[in-house]
Amino acid sequence: MSQYLRNIYDAVTSALKGMGITAKHVVRKPVTLQYPDERWVLPARFKGFIINDTNLCDGCLRCAKVCPVDCIYIETMGKGKDRFMHRYAVDYNKCIWCGLCTEECPTFACQHSLDYDHALYDRKRLVYEFVDPAHPVPCHKERRLQMGFFVEQVAAAPPDPDKIAKAPRRADLPEAAPGRRGRRGSVSGDLVFYGFALLTVLSGFFVVASRNVVHAAFSLLFTLFGVAGLYAQLGADFLAVTQTVVYIGGILVLVVFAVMMTRIPRSDAPRRGLDRAVPAAILALLSFALLYMVIVGARWPERATGAPEATVAEIGTGLMTRFVFPFEYASLVLLAAMVGAAILIRERAPQDDGGRRRRGNGEVRP
């Protein structure tokens, strides 16, 4: 009895302690911020992303030479007054924020900024370019003055970090010539794309070519999964989740159960030869050739792509406001399809020679 009361006491005291901690934090001032609308006030010497002020940079290469991980890429051409800097890039995939480049820079052009929130979906976009290849920057002081560049003597102190602009996005600058360092494509992204594409094509072929209905249904699962992966890689998060939850998790499971629980009548008819395979193959090749000509010949609009944005909220708002009538009409169509399927699979009573239906107890019904 004492142990029973002891357990009750421990349970009550534990609950009160938890409620006390919760009540204590209710009256406290919140310490979290509504990021990204609100941000922390960072100190002046905060080591954010490294940027380069091309108005001060003379292309001396000292920052690139002192970098221990070789993440700074500088390309110059010419000599003397005709020396120009065609590229200044920082690969933040390698950067360790050691600050050696900022200490070595004689003109204080290379500095740590207060920028830190560069969350991206593609790692190759973390290679930031600071010089437009179409407009190279002169390295000699006199040439810079002639071309209207701002030139400042070596200051006694580095510039104010608050006045340093954020590093430009890679998408904001034109692509440089191929083959340059840091311009490599995302190998992992390409492998994922080709993997999903190969999975979709092969499983789709097995769906069509398999003579076993159960095997075809399971192959359809991998086909739908591959399509969902392609949707996810294209940034269509809503379609990817719908494809996975509705088609794979719902409809396909029902199809598999229906196939496995239904008796499939065996046909003694001989297998057909090439009378259908050859026309089907020719039609498939013609369709593929037509699609290829359309894809290659069409002029697709080109634009700079950034990180994929979530579309679920926008689609949900549209379905409940602008497209509410088509959405509800689609539910009626699905309901009609379900009623029709129920009528089609309803068991019918056998008929005698006179066309009259016979019940299970032998009674004849006209």
**What structural class is derived from the secondary structure elements?**
alpha+beta
> Can you summarize the main beta sheet?
4 strands, antiparallel
Tally of strands:
8
Query: What's the mean pLDDT score?
Result: 76
Looking at how many chains there are and whether they match, the oligomeric state comes to single chain
The ordered H/E elements are HEHEEHEEEHHHHHHHEE
Q: Percent range for helical residues?
A: 40-55%
DSSP helical segment count: 10
Strand content: 5-15%
End-to-end separation: 77 Å
Q: What is the rounded Rg?
A: 34 Å
Shape estimate: flat
Low-confidence stretches: 151-185
Describe this structure in words.
The chain has 366 residues and is of the alpha+beta class. It is 45% helix and 8% strand. The protein has ten helices and eight strands. Strands 2, 3, 5 and 6 form a four-stranded antiparallel beta sheet that branches. The chain has a two-stranded antiparallel sheet with strand order 1-4. The protein has a two-stranded antiparallel sheet with strand order 7-8. A hairpin with a 6-residue loop joins strand 2 and strand 3. Helix 5 runs antiparallel to helix 6. It starts with a helix and ends with a strand.
Salient structural properties:
single chain, 366 residues, alpha+beta, 4-stranded antiparallel beta sheet, two-stranded antiparallel ribbon, 45% helix, flat
